[in-house]
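Worked example

This section walks through a single chain of length 343. The input is the sequence exactly as stored; nothing has been trimmed or padded.
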Amino acid sequence: GPPVLSPIVAEVYGPDYPGQIAVAKRIRAVFEGTADILGVDDSVDADAPKTVLRVNQAKAALLGVAQKDVVDTVRLGLTGEDVTPVHDNDAKYEVPVRITLPAERQSSLDQLLKLKVRGREGNLVPIFEVVEAKPALREKVIHHKDLLPVVNVTGDMGGKLDSPLYGMFAIQGQLDAAFPPAGSGQGAAAQGPIPGGLAQYYIRQPKDPYAGYAIKWDGEWQVTYETFRDMGAAYAVGLLLIYLLVVAQFGSYLTPLIIMAPIPLTIIGVMPSHALLGAQYTATSMIGMIALAGIIVRNSILLVDFIALQVREGVDFKQAVVRSASTRAQPILLTGLAAMFGA
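Given that input, the structure is written out below as tokens.
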């Protein structure tokens, strides 16, 4: 199938990004508190501090310092500056002469602010006298999916069950309790309600993400849904084509229905066998059921064809049914075994 971000993905949509991040953090806590859910993460960047140096215009004007000179000096202190090239007659390329601060001084803000700039009257002014250093946070990445801002919460499934869908449904049940709608009286227990609760979508993004906070389940769930949807459609088309072929074969609209009647009985073999071996029902199981439907129809055709042949020869109908079962049992068994070993 198509690659997925993670086996279990909750995409958080909502009217504003900080709110989406807050909701995602609460969802992450639910992920982490659910049994067998491993590798929990989200797409929110961690807080990364930075220091912003802002030139105090009034002080700079008073001391006759130009803002450009301050910027140039700080840049020189951080990255250095090429001041002149050295030409060597033998060298093909010129070598730049670069002035930089020693590495140990480059990493210190105090050392950087001690650098001096020349004022209008030739006076040297330390940078710390004309700039204000303010702590700030770096900008965070805003992720989008299909043009909508989104925050992803991801996880994986561990333990005995290998399908992430069981983990997803376990989390989904807990989210209703963690995000009670406003006015439900459960606000204090769940860090405050959010208006309208948290809507959950499975197949598509919310039509109006600005109406409230909502999540769309993605990951293995999306792949599984699309696989079973397409396989179910293929099953339906297969049954219809089988019906049309048998109508053409027997020239009757009722006989094909009798021939296809055993198809639902495939469940009798498939489901208990899965339970007996502790296997989970997967897309491969569904492919097997579709193939089994074809085998069963062929077996039915063999029986019905033989019964029709006997009745035409004047044999009593009941006797013809009994004879068909005993005569056709061996070829049906052999073709069934051949199909099994072939697979």
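What to look for: The chain has eleven helices and 13 strands.
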